[in-house]
Write a structure and sequence with these properties.
Leu-rich_rpt_4, Leu-rich_rpt, Leu-rich_rpt_typical-subtyp, Leucine-rich repeat-containing protein 40, little secondary structure, single chain, 2 domains, repeat, Leucine-rich repeat, LRR (right-handed beta-alpha superhelix), 23 strands, about 625 residues, 13-stranded parallel β-sheet
């Protein structure tokens, strides 16, 4: 038996241990939040929200107790309630019921945490307008969320949601709803009650059908149902009269739906099972600009494709198309046609190969030129015999048939320094809507263009030697302008041909201020010029949807002005001199296509830029200071 008395086990380190302190936020940060009403605690590794954050509007600061009568300018009783709380990119697993102590919150950002449920007290935040819950572990959305009557934006992407409560339809103020990257198999039948909704993202779920009530969303401008299991879409989709962008990529659709939205511009239908395009389906797409039909089973392209008079981009990659209608070459706005992976016969390989943006554009130009040249000789001969075609001294032909049916006046690739009067005479009183005078040697805008100012909506003056464009400002019906690769500073006398390249390397001044009068302008192409700054007048043309400024020397862009262009969906600033991308550019929420590659900035990194517009915009928003 041991001589020593057995004792309980002794913790020799007990005196050195301290209780784990409750997480707190530095007083300086809290004081700043009391003044601004905004508190940014993103990316701080928090596993719970500190108590002094919940009580920021309840507790009197210690230093305030000592300065009540000191005349200090930071008087706590005059400080503002917290309205914006950013808690993104932490490690929060739950939110306390004490969130009710912040009733003035209008923005609550909980993105990128580990939340699996929400406290019921959250419904007491009646002023809440924006609730961000993306990249969490939520498996369900509580029904009481419908009590947030002022909620305008709800972000729930990248969670584990399998269903949604019927009460979701009670959020009458909701403008933006993002449910992408979840596990949803269906939607509430009353989703159509969200009558204020403008953006709805349902991509990357397991949806096999959409409720008929979706047609009641008559204010929705952007609908994304990509990467689901849809085999059809409801006919009521045609009632969404405000729809501008529709994404239905990567589904199981075998028919293009009849879409009657008069403002639908972008339609993405790639990676489905479509075999045939019906004429009536195309005839309703009167405003379409981008049509993506890649990776389907389409066998032919109907002649009615020419009805898409506003089409700028057509992607038919990887289909079963064996021939193209020659009339495709008559689409005057078409800038990009992608055809790789089709069993086309009779076309040179270089017309189909996809390369960089420059070679693609050049290939499209050559393809359309080839298709126009494929108009049968018999038709050309008969046209020559008719009085509707006239031969000018330059031996160029103006076809009255094209002017009368397509309302298009074309006199391009003539290498002429002036447009003959006979060309304009042929179009008198014909209501011409489109003019193409590209690839000539024009040094000024032909003054007789003003004869078409009541009808002209599209003008292409690219690849000339123009020194200015002031007369264009009087063409108030213009919706599309192409001035690519032409701005050149010319001396008073006409230079000799061997110095043309030299003058193209000079700087061009801003676009004329009078261009702000073009209130119907939707797109402007200014690629390959010498702009050193973003043309200020463009900020004033609020109707703009597309601005292409690639391959210039632009060194900056002002997001505060750009945000005023609420319709802007495409902005190309590639290959410029941008040293810094302002984070506030991420707040330009209308942008669906932003090109920034080829600039010398260091952030965002090239890997983020390569991921596309959504990744870039999300990165920029994450860098906005509180």
């Amino acid at each position: 038996m041991s001589r020593f008395k057995k004792t309980d086990k002794v913790d020799f380190l007990a005196g050195f241990r301290t209780e784990k302190p409750e997480p707190t936020v530095p007083n300086g940060l809290l004081n700043a939040a009391r003044k601004s009403g905004q508190l940014n605690l993103s990316g701080r590794g928090l596993i719970e929200v500190p108590q002094n954050v919940y009580r920021i509007n309840c507790d009197v600061p210690e230093e305030a107790k000592q300065t009540v009568f000191s005349g200090d300018s930071d008087r706590w009783w005059e400080q503002t309630d917290l309205t914006k709380l950013l808690l993104a990119s932490n490690q929060l697993t739950q939110l306390s019921d004490d969130i009710r102590l912040l009733p003035a919150l209008t923005v609550l950002d909980l993105d990128d945490n580990q939340l699996s449920c929400l406290p019921e007290a959250l419904q007491e935040l009646q002023e809440l307008q924006q609730l961000r819950l993306s990249h969490n572990q939520l498996t369900s959305l509580p029904a009481w969320v419908a009590n947030l009557k002022n909620l305008a934006s709800l972000a729930l992407q990248f969670n584990l949601l399998v269903s949604l409560p019927e009460e979701l339809g009670h959020l009458k103020s909701l403008i933006e709803l993002d449910l992408s990257n979840n596990q949803l198999k269906d939607l509430p039948a009353n989703v159509g009650c969200l009558t204020c909704l403008q953006k709805l993202n349902l991509s990357h779920n397991k949806l096999s059908w959409l409720p008929d009530s979706i047609g009641q969303l008559t204010k929705v401008k952007m609908l994304d149902c990509s990467n689901n299991q849809l085999t059809e879409v409801p006919a009521s989709l045609s009632q969404m009269s405000a729809l501008e962008q529709l994404y239905l990529r990567h589904n199981k659709l075998d028919l293009l739906p009849n879409l009657k939205s008069p403002v639908l511009k972008d339609l993405y239908f790639g990676n489905n099972q479509i075999e045939q395009l019906e004429p009536e389906q195309l005839s309703s797409l009167t405003a379409i600009s981008v049509l993506e039909l890649r990776d389907n089973k389409i066998r032919s392209l109907p002649e009615e494709i020419t009805l898409l008079s506003s089409l700028t981009r057509l992607d038919l990659t990887n289909n079963d198309i064996s021939s193209l209608p020659a009339s495709l070459g008559l689409l005057s706005h078409l800038k990009v046609v992608l055809l790789e992976g089709n069993p086309l016969r009779g076309l040179r390989r270089d017309l189909l190969t996809v390369g960089d943006s420059i070679s693609t554009a050049k290939g499209t130009t050559e393809l359309l030129k080839y298709l126009r040249g494929r108009i049968t000789e018999s038709s050309a001969a008969s046209a020559a015999e008719e009085p509707t075609a006239m031969t000018l001294p330059s031996q160029a032909k103006v076809n009255f048939h094209n002017i009368q049916t397509l309302k298009m006046l074309q006199y391009s690739e003539k290498q002429t320094a002036a447009i003959p009067d006979e060309v304009f005479d042929a179009a008198v009183n014909q209501g011409v809507t489109a003019v193409n005078f590209s690839k000539n040697l024009l040094t000024s805008i032909p003054p007789r263009l003003l004869e078409f100012q009541s009808s002209l909506s599209d003008i292409n003056l690219g690849f000339n030697r123009l020194a200015g464009c002031d007369p264009i400002c009087s063409l108030l019906q213009l919706t599309h302008i192409d001035l690519s690769l032409w701005f050149v500073l010319l001396p008073p006398t006409q230079p000799s041909p061997n110095v043309i390249c030299y003058y193209r390397n000079n700087q061009m001044a801003e676009l004329p201020a009078e261009m702000k009068n073009l209130t119907k302008l939707r797109s402007i192409i200014l690629n390959y010029n010498r702009f050193k700054s973003f043309p200020g007048v463009l900020y004033q043309i609020v109707s703009l949807e597309t601005i292409l400024l690639g391959n210039n020397q632009v060194d900056g862009v002002d997001p505060s002005h750009l945000m005023k262009l609420s319709h802007l969906s495409t902005l190309d600033l590639s290959n410029n001199d941008l040293l810094k991308i302002p984070p506030e550019l991420g707040l330009c929420t209308s942008l669906r296509c932003l090109s920034l590659e080829g600039n010398p900035f260091r952030a965002p990194r090239a890997a983020i830029v390569a991921k596309g517009t959504d990744a870039v915009m999300e990165y920029l928003r994450s860098r906005i200071p509180a």
